[in-house]
Predict the structure.
Amino acid sequence: MTDTLKLTLAQLNPTVGDFAGNIAKAVEAHAEAARVGADMVLFPEMFVTGYQAQDLVLRPAFTCDAMAHVEKLAKQCDNGPAIGIGAPLLEGDNLFNAYFILSGGEILTILRKHELPNTKVFDEERLFDS
């Protein structure tokens, strides 16, 4: 174990609904993070779908497609730094604003957002489970 952890923060601008384009940005940022020797590259919440996707996340096909892209990203970036990236997660009847930790070609961990904002432009309590 090392004494340091080198992170790359990829504060990029995803496009709502452009899964392929957003994943391409993530792959490019992952390559750059690997080039500079990062241990992990972190993306914002809901990066795969773009934020805010609003009612699009209520369509199961949209959410399942986003999940397929998370799995594809894990396989594409199976070497190099770990990845932290946000996307919706459908588990049974529950829909979560989730954050995925990817490494070695697989999803290692899934974190589900607990504190859902419900003010002004934020309507997450209506869209997501806590």
About this structure: The two ends are 34 Å apart (CA to CA).
